[in-house]
Structure prediction request, 183 residues.
Amino acid sequence: MISTVLARRYAKALFAVAKEEDSLETYNKAIQAIGTLLAENPDVESALESPVVPPDIKEEIAEYIIKAVQVEESLANFLRLLVERRRIQHLRIIAESFQELMDEEMGVIRARVVTAVPLPAELKKKVAEVLSEVTGKTVALVTEEDPTIIGGVVAHVGDMVWDGSIRSQLQGFKESIGRGEIG
Prediction:
């Protein structure tokens, strides 16, 4: 919890700098590339998070990240500051928080839709349109397949969940039978 609050503060500070420099999109691409780099290289992320790894090694790792992603000088200085203040382990959470701030700024909301089978492109578009109407924002849709839901759709938008899966309907039916409501 504390790390999330701390990461959000750092993301807000970085967002303010990016906005002031009129480089929101550039910073977002770079910080997301860093998040991806860390996700794809768990050893690098583990080294940054480890209290055993000395700060000078973490500085080297930060310099590697700076070169690999080719970030702006302001963002490079930000990464160096995170190492100096022993906050570099929060980098991926900072990237996620920065994305949330970007989404807010652009009026975009992220939605995760889970279905039993892959959705055709036309249906993805229709689901995004419906969720956009419901939320009043542009929807960035991410789809997942989970055969355990049997059929239907489960949509996660922010803190809201719309569960129209057959699995949840069957569970509700089972509970109704258990309470003696159906007979």
About this structure: The domain at 107-178 is CATH 3.30.360 (Dihydrodipicolinate Reductase; domain 2).
